[in-house]
Amino acid sequence: MSDHLYLEGVGPDRLAALLMELAAQLHAERQRRMALEEALVRRGLLTREEVEALGGDAAFLGASQAALDANLRRLMRIMAEAGDARGPLRAEALP
C-alpha cells in the first residue's frame, strides 16, 4: 500500500504541470525578492542582516502565513481540477 494516497488518480502529466508551475512561481518570486532586497539595501533603508533577521521574526511569519496558504491552495487546484490535458493548466491555478 502506498504512503502517498493523495497522489492516487493523479497522472504524471498533472504532476509535471504542478512541478513546472511551482518552479516558475519560485523563480519569479526569488527574482522579485532579490530585486526588492537589493533596492532597500542600496538606499540604506535596511542592512542585509536586517533582511535575514526577518526570516525568524514570529510576527512577520504569522502575518505572512495567510498569503502563503492561499497560494498553496491555488497550486493544489492543479492536481484536483479537470482541464485540457494538452495544456499546462495555468488557468486552473488562478483564483
Chart the SSEs and their pairings.
Elements: H1 12-42, H2 48-54, H3 58-80
Helix pairs in contact: 1-3
Describe the structure.
The protein is an all-alpha fold and 95 residues long. The protein has one domain. It has helices spanning 12-42, 48-54, 58-80. Helix 1 runs antiparallel to helix 3. The radius of gyration is 18 Å and the shape is elongated.
Number of helices: 3
**Structural class estimated from helices and strands:** mainly alpha
Q: Mind summarizing the main beta sheet?
A: none
Q: Report how far apart the termini are.
A: 34 Å
Output mean pLDDT. 79
Taking all Cα atoms into account, the compactness measure Rg is 18 Å
Beta strand count: 0
| Low-confidence blocks of residues | none
Order of helices and strands: HHH
Number of structural domains:
1
Q: Could you estimate the helical fraction of the residues in percent?
A: 55-70%
Shape: elongated
Approximate strand percentage: under 5%
Entry summary:
The chain is mainly alpha-helical and 95 residues long.
Name a few traits of the molecule.
0% strand, mainly alpha, single chain, 95 residues
